[in-house]
Amino acid sequence: MDFENNKSIYLQIAESIRERVVGGVYPAGEKIPSVRELAAEMGVNPNTIMRTYTELQTMEIIDNKRGIGYFVKPEAPQLIMEGKRKNFFEKIFPEFIRQAGLLGITASQLKTRIDQLHQVKK
Amino acid sequence: MDFENNKSIYLQIAESIRERVVGGVYPAGEKIPSVRELAAEMGVNPNTIMRTYTELQTMEIIDNKRGIGYFVKPEAPQLIMEGKRKNFFEKIFPEFIRQAGLLGITASQLKTRIDQLHQVKK
Amino acid sequence: MDFENNKSIYLQIAESIRERVVGGVYPAGEKIPSVRELAAEMGVNPNTIMRTYTELQTMEIIDNKRGIGYFVKPEAPQLIMEGKRKNFFEKIFPEFIRQAGLLGITASQLKTRIDQLHQVKK
Amino acid sequence: MDFENNKSIYLQIAESIRERVVGGVYPAGEKIPSVRELAAEMGVNPNTIMRTYTELQTMEIIDNKRGIGYFVKPEAPQLIMEGKRKNFFEKIFPEFIRQAGLLGITASQLKTRIDQLHQVKK
DNA sequence: GTGGTCTAGACCACC
DNA sequence: GTGGTCTAGACCACA
To answer: With pLDDT > 90 as the criterion, what percentage of chain D qualifies?
Structure first.
């Protein structure tokens, strides 16, 4: 795995774990890789993974069973999706519109573009 | 002036100067405030402004005349706009679409939303 | 380390690092000393080294891995040599010839001199 | 007149005056332009010219007749040429050779180049 | 441990 | 007056 350099690695990893959770790679209720395993997979210092897991724990995405490992909390997938939704409509979308406005891009131009790359289904 | 906490002050100032340039507050070819002046206005250390100016100089936004001060380069406004435009279409827009896709937001939903907040003109 | 007085310390250090890179002291791809280490070695303030490293980074000579340190970019040695070569043929050489011309020094005189100090191999 | 930005303007002007002296534009013994005249011609602050003249005065290139102006000293042309000659053989030439050596440029390559741009007469 | 940012204050060369 | 460099020292986020 390679990382962008302007975001902290532990947050990039946290994001990728969240995507694995919503994508079903790490199913709700199941154990996720140990700190050392994931560190090896990612080619990263275990401390960094530790930090990621702590972060995800305070976000209530995973929890820890002592001596056993970390597990995806049952409600995690919904929680993640909600979070993303909220972030999208409260931050990303308005910022997107603001930037478009600054550049003098009109609504109809935007809509045309959206239709063009219909990565989003009608 | 007060600053957000997750971006470095000198970069926030750089951004605000770029906006002043495109907004015509600092017209192309004209002198911008001296390091010390701006430091006073912003309530920061002159070194911080120095860093901002150095940054803007390597970006070819401003230019130095020895012993006189920094000046907006003639091409600066276009250069800034181009940069923003590029960033928008290559980074912000695709990421926006990707996120929308992940959330299962349809194109028509997006378009409706855009019409709602018509901060962007038809 | 002691420095000449008419060039800034941070640039002199940058130059010496470039020479260490082309000389193989800091091999391509390898880590260079940490900011604090080098500051100690050179007897200067860490900020000064920081400035050097920032400069070298914008020149694409070195590269940063978060929390680990700075590394010589793989292409650095060639890049440095190319830069020197370009500088030589576009700046130093013509200026040299111009000065010789002003002094009325003939080509054959120059060639004689070159042979004399055959620091340059035949 | 436009200036390079990494050398002080007053020294660049001093150099251009020296060239005018050896070129006969300002003949030995004659008056040179007043501070204000030259400042106007060069598009520069009179203080800067003042500094240039002071510099040239300490180098014994020009001298000052109070209330009248600055004059080229009779021996100036020879003195300038000597200075250039010395500088050339003690500084420029050895540095030139050193750089060529670092780049692995051989003596014969240099000589070929010199013949090519025979701005220097045979 | 690593770099990154910021402040305060100094000194200098230059216009 | 202008910028440019340097130091000392602090604090922070990150690996």
So the answer is: 63
Residue-wise pLDDT tens digits, D91-121: 888 888 888 988 888 888 888 888 877 655 5
SS3 call for C49: helix
Q: Which residue has the higher pLDDT, D90 or D30?
A: D30
Domain spans of chain A, in order of start: 9-75, 77-121
Q: Which helix (H) or strand (E) holds C92?
A: none
Q: Do D107 and C93 touch (CB under 8 A)?
A: no
SS3 sequence, chain D?
Answer: CCCCCCCCHHHHHHHHHHHHHHCCCCCCCCECCCHHHHHHHHCCCHHHHHHHHHHHHHCCCEEEECCCEEEECCCHHHHHHHHHHHHHHHHHHHHHHHHHHHCCCCHHHHHHHHHHCCCCCC
D77 to chain B nearest CA, in Å?
30
CA of B1, C1' of E11: distance in angstroms: 30
**Across residues D44-48, what is the average pLDDT?**
95
B6 CB neighbours in chain A (<8 A) are none
Contact criterion met (CB < 8 Å) for C64 and A5: yes
Residue with smallest Cα–C1' gap to F7: C45
Substitution target from D4, D114, D115 for chain C, most C beta carbons within 10 A: D114
Q: Is pLDDT at B122 greater than 70 in this prediction?
A: no
Using one digit for the tens of pLDDT, what is the confidence trace for B50-88?
999 999 999 999 999 999 999 999 999 999 999 999 999
Q: What is the pLDDT of residue B119?
A: 53
Output the CATH code of domain A9-75. 1.10.10.10
